[in-house]
Amino acid sequence: MAQTPQPTASSERDAPLFSQHAAIVLVMAVIIGGLVSALTYCKSRSLADAALAGLFAAGASAPVLHKLIG
């Protein structure tokens, strides 16, 4: 009887969780969100406004960075 090869556990562990492209896009989006958040806090002195502005900037910049860096 012919045996089919079983997938090895090491090949599954070697695969990265994120691609390099995805990691760069996410890091850049977090940096942009942090900068916008810091600038908003300096202007308004409101943590809630700064958090919302930073989250919005990070979320809005991710698809743009994906297309630009791609």
List the helices and strands and how they pair.
Elements: H1 9-14, H2 20-44, H3 47-69
Helix pairs in contact: 2-3
Question: How would you characterize the overall build of this protein?
Answer:
- The protein is mostly helical.
- The chain has one domain.
- 77% of the residues lie in helices and 0% in strands.
- The chain contains 3 helices and no strands.
- Helix 2 packs antiparallel against helix 3.
- It is elongated and about 75 Å long.
Name the quaternary structure: single chain
Class from helix and strand fractions: mainly alpha
Number of DSSP strand runs: 0
Shape assignment? elongated
Roughly what percent helix? over 70%
Rounded Rg: 20 Å
Cα(first) to Cα(last) distance is 48 Å
Task: Please tally the helical runs, counting DSSP H or I stretches of 4 or more residues.
Answer: 3
Number of structural domains = 1
Give the averaged pLDDT, no decimals.
90
* SSE order: HHH
| Beta-strand content | under 5%
Low-pLDDT regions: none
- Report the sheet with the most strands, covering strand number, pairing sense and barrel closure: none
Short description:
By secondary structure, the chain is mainly α. Helices cover 77% and strands 0% of the residues.
